[in-house]
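Troubleshooting entry. The earlier prediction with zinc ion gave an output that would not parse, so I re-checked the input for stray whitespace and re-submitted. Clean input:
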Amino acid sequence: MSTLFIKNGTVISATGATAMDVLVDGETIVALYVPGSDLASTAEGGADRVIDADGKYVIPGGVDVHTHMELPFGGTFASDTFETGTRAAAWGGTTTIVDFAVQSHGRQVRECLDEWMGKAEGECAIDYGFHLIVGEVNEASLKEMSTLVDEGISSFKLFMAYPGVFYSDDGQVLRAMQNASDSGGLIMMHAENGIAIDVLAEQAVNRGETDPVYHGRVRREELESEATHRAIKLAKVGAAPLYIVHLSASEALEEVARARNAGANVFAETCPQYLYLNLEDHLGAPGFDGAKYVCSTPLRSKHEHHHADLWKGLRTDDLSVVSTDHCPFCFKDQKELGRDDFRAIPNGIGGVEHRLDLIYQGVVQGEIGLARWVELCATTPARMFGLYPRKGVIQPGSDADIVLYDPNATWSISVDNHHMNMDYSAYEGFEVQGKVDTVISRGRVIVENDNYHGSKGDGRYLRRGLCEYLM
Ligand code: URP
Ligand code: ZN
Ligand code: ZN
């Protein structure tokens, strides 16, 4: 086992920033030292390798709990494989992902899960776990859900959108929630009224409104907030905790805030695209370029207060997590499938590489503090999905997933410098202050000096525990 000593850095945790040296033994953090102390000097003297983190933040590796490598969608597949997507995540300082195994309609959960485990095994650059998308709530899948919680798959995504594909009706949602209530599982909800959206989408296309921007116009914010409200009420009836995924609209956030103020076990995440991109400039970009920004829930109007409200939600903890919902599709041949009809554009934006940087801009702009940045991107996601304290914190006993972050570097995001398997960047030209400098995954330095030293298969499968916030 080799030892690694990280000195002169400022360790950021969910509770604050402290000058600390960190000792790693093999794959594990074993001690933190007061810099300059005798104990620190002795530890440094005995270390196999010393990294000087002077001027850098030393933060826990990012935990992205919402990614979709290889997701089948609309007749194509998300363009990042587990190999390319986890490598890109590593470049961006994310050392753990929780992806989604998909139970497709008409198939058994176990068979699908084995298939997804097979896709990821031996391919990942960083550690990974799975949630399960329950494509069909029935007696068999409900039985499997209970078993899976004990096996380390403790969260289940349901869809109130996409009728005929992933959609569950209210009865199925309630039954899954009752099941989660009994087993300790966490229901993750895609909260949009898909039945109403499909009506509006058909009417739009019949009027000749086929451009990408109509994807956002028909997926109205009322249909996000209505579904969020309904999910919250069903969770109350089912006595189950609830986690709303990819929340984008102010009114939906109000529903979550109201439930939380009433003491309900309701949580929500948002994603960088909902904090920085908008319906008019991006989804409504000239020509067919808006297709690059088609995702669901959709980007919201810049003429309303969504961005400001979401940042506020991140401060107040009505939004507890920032994930990416990384679901990349190339423009050529993939987004292009919907040139004549926005309904055929595969839904999703790639961003697994840029979450830490994009949310750090919130620190630069005074929206959140340093500790909250770490809490949103690493600590709370780990706690929410049963990975803490193994992940999400720098403390003795935790996995040595550590990022050295340079707050003074400046650069701009581009398809020319990203590592995701996409032929465009949703954040092209976006100026960033701060940069991931060094990435350590379970004690191995995998990104350093703008070079990648990891390899596929380094990442291990994570059996997860239960959501910590329910105990
Ligand atoms: O547009 C999105 N979000 N694509 C991925 C699937 C989902 O609903 O999360
Ligand atoms: Zn979704
Ligand atoms: Zn998703």
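This one parsed fine. The chain has a mean pLDDT of 98.
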